[in-house]
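Model it.
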Amino acid sequence: MNIAIGVCEKINGICTTMGCFKAFNNKEKHFKTYKNEEINLSSFFTCQICSSESKDWLNELADRFVKNNIFKVHIGVCIVKCKADKKEEIINIFQSKGIKVIEGTH
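Modeled.
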């Protein structure tokens, strides 16, 4: 199964993202549901909804995911607790393309 992880662009220079990768690699925390499955991290992306003030990037990304059989996106706690209050917009974009969104990584 192919999955993607999305994080907030504003964590650049603040967060190492090691927590996301550790949880994924060890199938811990929000990835424990995949304990008996083979999973591939097919994309690690930033939402860019704040800097671009547009949803175009996420819509394009969601379309690419569908074309590449990525139907699960884990959003990091940085998006779950989005200070710009964009979490629901982000989730809705992916869900509108048939992509399941899981809130959390580690």
